[in-house]
Structure formats: structure tokens, C-alpha cells
């Protein structure tokens, strides 16, 4: 026995030296023609840290329970068909890896949140390279931590909010990396509630019914380089602190209540280098304070930034505002935020001393945006000469717009 | 009619004014491109200018040409020519030469700045198309005014007033109405109100192109149907075409009854 | 040839024609006379279709003229005041009218008759009134049409041109053309007119020969006859 153990250690060392993940001694083949015909059976007979190799085929199983550290590795995307009877996988053990499965037909329920893969109170899980179709919830992380959700394809056909679930759902979870997933057609692409220190990177979340990304009561998170496109209401970040948002793209989120990004009760966040393009509202800000906006591009949005209610000590600098119908809209005439050194394509001043900074301050809030806030139908008069005349007179002597809301250093050239 | 069109056009091509407009547009195009150095941005700025300026130029020039060519018209009227074709020929001559000035004047600078290599070609073609339609509409309206007023000063007065009304006053009244009745559903009203003003219609066509993101923020179902689908574009374009036909129809009607 | 029936025309509140009836058979020269403002030009313009009558009908060559234009191919018209577009040349104008009427025209001999060769390349704005009238005459006489309508053909003409004009009229008359002429020069009427139509206050006061008019008024010459009619009317 000790001899064997020594061999075992030797092999592991050898494999680690070669840089290959150690394939543990126990490997179980699962296929329709094998001895082990079902995944659940495979799990039941497996030892801890064994690998189940699931061959191509259709496995009609649901409520599969993984209660020991295992690796489930699909070959050529074997189909795991839940037949709409309930949850497909439930992980209740640390150190589980699921890779290369094609999970379909998760049961829709109005009483419990069935998921294709649910992780409960577990650590060190890896969910990699799986595909999900016809789902309710995709990946549901419940009170779990230190896991990775990487390169999964989630494709739903959600039609109504009440009977659809979220793509990747994090609840009371922390220290998780969510990267390079592709999520379409669910309720919320990625949903976080009471989830801290999460990193969300390089995901694409499109055509979801509600939000591409939805944050609630989740602090110290970073999300970067994601694409959020064509979602019902864009991205919502609510009631959270210390969020960093960098290099994301928010595009084509259209509709009466759609935003590139909705910030509600967010404090001490950093928003840098993002692109907001062709959204009805680029960023909608409500009751959010001490946020730094730097180096973002706002291109061809209806409203680049809409500020509602009391927002204090926010700083906007070195952003580009290009061809938005409205660059900035306020619903009050008090301002405690600073706008310095941005580039505004609507700036009509000049730069006589050629220092790259406009000699006349820029007033980004148009009077017309107030009128539209009051009577939305007046929007139809956008770009009318009459409105331009009114805006011009307001610009000359502000009455309705905050007097101190100026960019005193408007840039003459696009900020790279 | 073609012969009259030919002579009117020929006449206009020799008049100083066509060159003035051509040079004006040329200058405008170059200055805008020089200042912006960005084709798509220049196109956007142009759109704002075009929907105001083109009607003004077409109105003034239409009235002016009509009064100045009275002799020519009288000479033609005694010839075996159909009345409506005389006026149609002159109308098409004026509108055509103005459109030509517009196309060439703006087209040249944009071509030189590499229009075909940029993505702005579609927006630019739409701009030119709208410019052309507005030219035809307002030349037609100007001809109507001139035909109804023997007095030149009065004719000019009405023409300028027409432009001022369509370009500025109409929207002012429109806005006041919207604010005054803001408790009521105003979707249908505001869409209808735009149809009655060709400048507003052109503006909507441009909005649909440039500001669709903002327009989709509307909550009303009527708006959603109108703006969110191709329907809005089709209806606006159709209404604009109707606006082109209307003055022509009224012109031929008026011309039949007019004494010289 | 030309039938005018019960023509009424009113400009604003001014009733110019009040039921004019006139029948002009083919051939011969008809002079339309009358004091200023009696409606001569308006009547002629009605015939040409430049003015639309409020009431009544006009037919030419048995065709009603209302809203028609083809019949003008049968008419050569000399307008009262030669209003030409100023910025084109005489040669171009002649060419243009020929093009518009799509009819061959014999302008060459007429240009010779009126001595217009030196002016052919001049712009119309730079011509004197008399020269313009000569151009006007060339444009009128260069086509071969059965009806010729002349509104004040003599205005601004020098005696030489006047003789040329009279010869032209006689020549065309011999060719069987029908003339309708308005003028104030009574001597001209006496020399060329076969029949006289006298308009007074928008109605036809007299139609017939010159001698008939003299007889009716008991005057020696046309000038006096007309003065007599006018006086009579005023006294009445």
C-alpha cells in the first residue's frame, strides 16, 4: 500500500512538472452503451476527485446531485435533457468541475428557482465551457464562493419576466470569477444579490428581457470589458458600494425605461473607459454619490447622462460626448457635481490661444431637456430652429439650468 | 413643357444667382469640413442647416424668378403652348437648377473629402434628397404666392412670412400647445402637427436617422408604432411627397384662372 | 372666323367688358378702336386666351377657345408693349420662338426689311423702344398663320418702319389673312382698315366701314367722328 502511495505521489509530481492537469487514477466512462449509462449512476459509484467522462449522447436526467469533489467532462457536448421536470445538476460539495455539457430543458416552476446547474454552499467549483438552452435559471450560485464560471453559452427564449429566470445568478456568494460567458434571451443576463468581491470580465450579455447585468446590495465588485447590448433595460447597478466598472460596452439599449446603465444609490464607484453607444439613456443616475467618471465615450445616445434627484460630489472628467441628442439632463437646478476637461461635440466655442482648451466655458445642459422632462411629447421638436433659439438664449443667461453647471475646460480635440 | 423647362433652365444657368447659390453651398461644405474634419459630423451639422436654409433660399428665389420672368411668361402665353406646361416648365426649371446648385455645391467638397470611402454616404444621400424635396416644395409654394400677388413687395413679404412661419413660428405654437395641454394624451396630435409642416417633416426624417435612441424613450404606444418601426419613415416620406405635389396642383389650378 | 359672344370681364371692381358681341369673317382688316380704358386690349387678350372672360364664349375657326391652346398656332400676336426677357440676344429670341412654335419662320427677309442685322447679337435689354418694336414685328410676321392680331403696332416706329409695316399688312391681306388691330393713330386706320369696331365703355358701339361711321356721325374724318361719339356719350 505504501509502495502504491509512493508511486502515486511520483506520478503527480511528474505530471505537474510536465504542466498537465493530473488525471486522477479514477476515471469513469459514461455513455449510452457503457456499463455506466447514467450520469447519476456514475456519480454514485465514483470516488472523490474522480473524473466522469461523459461521451456523446442524450442523457435524460434531472435532479442530479453531486455531493463529492468530482470532475464531469463532456466529450462532444453530450446532451443532458431535464425534460422540463426540474433542476438538472445540484452541487453540494467543494471542488466540483463541470465542463463541456449541453444542458437543455430545465423545468419552469413558479415556486422554486430551478437551474441547469445550482451550486449550494460550496467552494472551489469550476463551471466551464458548457452550453445551456431552453432553461429557466442557467447557473445559480447560492451561498458559494471561490469559484469560476467561464466560457459558457447560455441561450434562452424568455418571453415574459414572470416565467423566466436569470442566466448566471449569484446570491450571497463571494470571490467568484465570471468570465467570457455569452448570455442571450434570459430575464437578467447576470444577476448579483448580496454578492461581494466578484469579478465579471469579458462576458457578452445580449437581448435579455430585463437587464444585461443586475446588481443589488453587492459591494467591492469589478466588472470590466463586458458587452451589454440590446437588453430590455440595459444594466442596473443598485444599492451597492465600491464598484469598479471599466472598459465595458453598453450598446443599443432602447426603450422608455432602458438605460445603458442605471445607477441607483451607488456610492464611491469608479466608472472609466466605458463606451455607451446608441442607448436611449447612456447612464441614468439616481441618488449616487462620489463617483468618478473618467475617459468614457458617450456616442449617439438619446441622453448621454441623465441625473435625477440628489447626486453629490460626482466628478466627470476627460470623457467624450459625441452626437448625443442630449449630453446631460438634470431635473433640478442645483448642481454639486463637477464637469471638467471633457470633449463635447456640441461645443461651439473657439480656442484662440491654441492650447487645446476652449476659451469659453461649455454649458452641457440644454433648456430643452427641461421642457422634455416636463412634457415628453415635446421631444418631437428636437433640432427645431425654435428650440435652438430658446437654448441659445438660455445659454447666454441661464434661468432654468444650474448656473454653475459648466465645463470650464472643454477640450477642442477628441480625447484618445 | 420640356422646351420651356429647357429655356428656363438655360436662362437660370446664365443668371448670376444660380452661381451665387452654388458658390454659397460650396463654401458652406468646405467650411464645415474644414472646421470639423469629420465627415459624419459635418453631415449632421449640415442637416440642421439644410432644413432651415433650403426653404428660405427656395422661397426667395422662386418669388424672385417669377416676378423677374414676367416678360418671358407673357411672351410664352401668347404662343401656342399649354398654360400649365408654361408654369410647370418654369417651376421645374427653378427647382431643378436650385437642386443642382445644392447637389454640386455640397457634393463637390464632400467628394473631395472622401465621401465614398466613409460611412456617411447614406446620411449624405438622405440629406441631399431632403434638400431636393424641400427645394421643390418651397419653390412651388413661392410660385403660388407670386401668382396670387401682382404686387412684388407684397409677394416677397408673404414669401418671407411663409418661411418664418414654417421654420420658427409653427414650432413655437406647437410647443405652447403641447405644454398647455400636457395633461392630455398628445401622441396623435403631435404626430399630426408635424405632417402639416414640411420643415417639421424633414426634421422628423432626420431625427429618425440621428436621434432614434432618444425617440425610443417615448412611452406612448402611437409613438412607438410610428418611430420604432419603418412606418414612421414611410409615412413621413409619403407626406413629404404629398407636400411636393400639393403646390404643383394648386399652381396649375391657379394658372388656369389667372389673367395677364 | 372669329366669333365673340356676350363677353364680360371684371378686374376687381372695374367692369371692363360688359357683353361684347362681335363676328369677324375671314379676310380683311378689322381695326378695334375706342378711348383709353374702353377694353380694346382686354378684348384682344380674351381672344388670345391671356385673359379669361367671366362670361361668354369665343370661338376661332369654329373652335371654342376656353382652356385650349392649340388654336394659337393659327394666330400671330403682337403684344402692346414688347416685354422681352432682357438677358437674351435678339438672335436667340427669334430662334427660341421658332423652336417653341415648331414651325418654319421666314425671319430673314423681315430682318432685312427692318434693318435689324446690326442688332442680332445684342441683348434685348440694350435695345431702344423702337428697335424692340421692330423685333416684336419680326416675331409676329415671320410665321404664316391665318389670323394676325396686332396691339398698337405703330408705337415707337419711325416713318420708314411705318411704311414697311403698312406694306407688310397689305401683302398679308392679299394673301387672305384676317387682321385684328388696335391703334390710336387714326391716319393709320384710315389707310389700312376695311372695317371698324368701335368699343365704348365695354360694349361694341359700332361695327362697319369707315364711311358708314362718318355718315352715322356726320363728320368729315375719323378723328372728328370719334371725338364726336365720345362727347355725345359724355353729354348724354
Automatic annotation (TrEMBL), chain B:
Sequence intervals crossing the membrane: 20-36, 42-67, 88-112, 124-147, 159-181, 201-223, 230-251
Give the organism's phylogenetic lineage. Answer: Bacteria, Pseudomonadati, Bacteroidota, Flavobacteriia, Flavobacteriales
**Keyword terms, alphabetized:** Membrane, Transmembrane, Transmembrane helix
Q: Under what name is this protein listed?
A: ABC transporter permease
| UniProt source species | Lentiprolixibacter aurantiacus
TrEMBL record, chain C:
> Which CDD domains does the UniProt entry name for this protein?
ABC_DR_subfamily_A
All copies of domain ABC transporter, residue ranges: 2-226
Q: Does the keyword Nucleus apply?
A: no
Q: Which UniProt keywords apply?
A: ATP-binding, Nucleotide-binding, Transport
Q: Which residues, by range, are in coiled-coil regions?
A: none
Q: Which InterPro entries match?
A: AAA+_ATPase (IPR003593), ABC_transporter-like_ATP-bd (IPR003439), ABC_Transporter_VariousFunc (IPR051782), P-loop_NTPase (IPR027417)
- Keyword set includes ATP-binding: yes
Question: Which GO MF terms does the UniProt record name?
Answer: ATP binding; ATP hydrolysis activity
Question: Short name of one Pfam family for this protein?
Answer: ABC_tran
Looking at the record's lineage, which domain of life comes first? Bacteria
Give the protein's recorded name: ABC transporter ATP-binding protein
Amino acid at each position: 500500500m505504501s509502495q502504491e502511495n509512493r508511486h502515486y505521489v511520483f506520478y503527480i509530481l511528474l505530471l505537474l512538472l510536465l504542466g498537465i492537469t493530473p488525471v486522477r487514477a479514477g476515471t469513469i466512462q459514461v455513455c449510452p452503451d457503457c456499463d455506466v449509462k447514467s450520469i447519476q449512476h456514475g456519480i454514485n459509484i465514483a470516488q472523490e476527485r474522480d473524473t466522469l467522462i461523459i461521451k456523446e449522447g442524450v442523457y435524460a436526467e434531472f435532479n442530479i446531485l453531486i455531493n463529492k469533489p468530482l470532475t464531469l467532462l463532456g466529450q462532444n457536448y453530450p446532451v443532458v435533457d431535464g425534460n422540463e421536470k426540474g433542476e438538472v445538476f445540484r452541487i453540494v460539495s467543494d471542488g466540483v468541475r463541470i465542463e463541456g455539457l449541453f444542458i437543455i430543458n430545465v423545468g419552469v416552476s413558479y415556486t422554486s428557482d430551478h437551474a441547469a446547474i445550482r451550486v449550494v454552499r460550496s467552494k472551489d467549483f469550476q463551471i466551464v465551457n458548457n452550453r445551456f438552452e431552453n432553461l429557466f435559471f442557467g447557473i445559480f450560485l447560492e451561498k458559494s464562493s471561490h469559484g469560476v464560471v467561464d466560457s459558457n453559452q447560455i441561450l434562452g427564449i424568455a418571453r415574459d419576466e414572470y416565467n423566466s429566470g436569470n442566466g448566471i445568478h449569484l446570491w450571497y456568494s463571494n470571490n467568484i470569477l465570471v468570465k467570457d460567458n455569452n448570455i442571450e434571451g434570459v430575464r437578467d443576463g447576470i444577476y448579483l444579490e448580496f454578492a461581494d468581491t466578484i469579478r465579471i470580465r469579458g462576458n457578452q450579455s445580449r437581448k435579455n428581457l430585463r437587464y444585461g447585468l443586475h446588481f443589488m446590495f453587492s459591494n467591492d465588485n469589478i466588472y470590466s470589458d463586458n458587452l451589454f447590448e440590446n437588453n430590455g433595460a440595459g444594466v442596473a447597478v443598485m444599492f451597492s458600494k465600491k464598484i469598479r466598472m471599466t472598459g465595458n460596452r453598453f450598446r443599443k439599449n432602447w426603450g422608455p425605461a432602458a438605460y445603458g446603465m442605471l445607477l441607483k444609490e451607488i456610492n464611491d464607484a469608479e466608472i472609466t473607459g466605458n463606451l455607451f453607444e446608441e442607448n436611449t439613456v447612456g447612464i441614468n443616475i439616481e441618488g449616487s454619490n462620489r463617483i468618478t467618471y473618467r475617459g468614457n465615450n458617450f456616442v449617439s445616445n438619446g441622453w448621454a447622462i441623465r441625473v435625477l434627484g440628489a447626486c453629490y460630489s460626482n466628478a466627470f472628467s476627460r470623457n467624450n460626448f459625441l452626437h448625443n441628442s442630449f449630453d446631460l439632463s438634470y431635473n433640478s437646478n442645483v448642481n454639486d457635481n463637477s464637469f471638467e476637461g471633457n470633449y463635447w461635440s456640441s461645443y461651439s466655442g473657439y480656442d484662440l490661444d491654441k492650447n487645446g482648451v476652449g476659451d469659453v466655458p461649455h454649458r452641457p445642459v440644454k433648456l430643452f431637456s427641461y421642457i422634455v422632462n416636463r412634457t415628453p411629447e415635446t421631444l418631437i421638436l428636437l433640432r427645431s430652429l425654435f428650440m435652438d433659439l430658446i437654448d441659445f438664449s438660455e445659454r447666454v443667461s441661464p434661468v432654468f439650468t444650474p448656473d454653475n453647471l459648466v465645463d470650464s475646460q472643454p477640450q477642442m480635440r477628441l480625447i484618445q | 413643357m420640356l422646351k420651356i423647362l429647357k429655356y428656363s433652365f438655360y436662362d437660370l444657368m446664365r443668371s448670376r444667382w444660380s452661381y451665387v447659390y452654388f458658390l454659397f453651398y460650396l463654401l458652406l461644405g468646405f467650411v464645415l469640413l474644414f472646421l470639423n474634419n469629420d465627415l459624419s459630423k459635418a453631415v449632421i451639422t449640415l442637416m440642421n442647416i439644410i432644413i432651415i436654409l433650403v426653404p428660405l433660399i427656395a422661397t426667395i428665389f422662386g418669388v424672385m424668378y417669377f416676378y423677374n420672368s414676367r416678360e418671358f411668361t407673357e411672351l410664352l402665353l401668347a404662343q401656342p403652348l399649354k398654360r400649365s406646361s408654361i408654369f410647370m416648365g418654369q417651376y421645374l426649371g427653378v427647382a431643378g437648377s436650385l437642386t443642382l446648385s445644392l447637389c454640386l455645391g455640397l457634393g463637390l467638397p464632400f467628394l473631395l473629402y472622401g465621401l465614398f470611402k466613409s460611412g456617411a454616404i447614406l446620411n449624405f444621400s438622405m440629406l441631399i434628397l431632403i434638400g431636393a424635396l424641400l427645394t421643390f416644395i418651397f419653390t412651388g409654394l413661392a410660385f403660388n404666392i407670386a401668382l396670387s400677388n401682382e404686387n412684388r413687395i407684397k409677394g416677397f413679404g408673404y414669401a418671407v412670412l411663409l418661411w418664418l412661419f414654417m421654420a420658427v413660428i409653427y414650432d413655437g405654437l406647437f410647443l405652447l400647445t403641447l405644454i398647455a395641454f400636457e395633461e392630455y394624451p398628445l401622441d396623435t396630435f403631435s404626430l399630426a402637427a408635424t405632417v402639416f409642416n414640411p420643415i417639421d417633416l424633414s426634421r422628423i426624417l432626420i431625427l429618425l436617422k440621428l436621434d432614434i435612441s432618444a425617440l425610443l424613450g417615448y412611452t406612448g404606444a402611437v409613438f412607438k408604432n410610428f418611430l420604432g418601426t419603418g412606418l414612421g419613415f414611410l409615412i413621413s416620406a409619403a407626406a413629404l411627397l404629398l407636400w411636393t405635389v400639393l403646390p404643383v396642383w394648386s399652381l396649375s389650378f391657379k394658372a388656369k384662372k389667372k389673367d395677364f | 372666323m372669329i366669333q365673340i359672344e356676350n363677353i364680360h370681364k371684371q378686374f376687381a371692381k372695374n367692369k371692363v367688358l360688359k357683353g361684347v358681341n362681335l363676328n369677324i369673317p375671314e379676310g380683311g382688316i378689322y381695326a378695334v378702336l375706342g378711348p383709353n380704358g374702353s377694353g380694346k386690349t382686354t378684348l384682344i387678350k380674351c381672344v388670345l386666351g391671356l385673359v379669361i372672360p367671366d362670361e361668354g364664349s369665343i370661338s376661332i375657326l369654329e373652335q371654342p377657345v376656353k382652356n385650349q391652346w392649340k388654336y394659337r398656332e393659327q394666330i400671330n400676336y403682337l403684344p402692346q408693349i414688347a416685354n422681352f426677357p432682357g438677358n437674351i440676344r435678339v438672335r436667340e429670341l427669334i430662334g427660341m420662338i421658332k423652336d417653341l412654335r415648331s414651325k418654319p419662320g421666314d425671319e430673314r427677309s423681315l430682318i432685312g426689311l427692318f434693318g435689324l442685322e446690326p442688332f442680332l447679337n445684342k441683348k434685348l435689354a440694350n435695345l431702344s423702344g423702337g428697335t424692340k418694336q421692330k423685333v416684336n414685328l419680326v416675331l409676329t410676321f415671320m410665321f404664316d398663320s391665318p389670323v394676325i392680331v396686332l396691339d398698337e403696332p405703330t408705337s415707337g416706329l419711325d416713318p420708314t418702319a411705318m411704311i414697311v409695316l403698312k406694306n407688310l399688312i397689305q401683302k398679308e391681306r392679299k394673301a387672305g389673312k384676317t387682321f385684328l388691330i388696335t391703334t390710336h393713330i387714326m391716319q393709320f386706320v384710315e389707310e389700312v382698315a376695311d372695317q371698324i369696331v368701335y368699343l365704348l365703355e365695354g360694349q361694341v358701339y359700332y361695327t362697319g366701314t369707315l364711311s358708314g361711321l362718318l355718315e352715322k356721325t356726320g363728320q368729315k374724318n375719323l378723328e372728328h367722328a370719334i371725338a364726336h361719339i365720345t362727347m355725345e356719350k359724355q353729354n348724354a
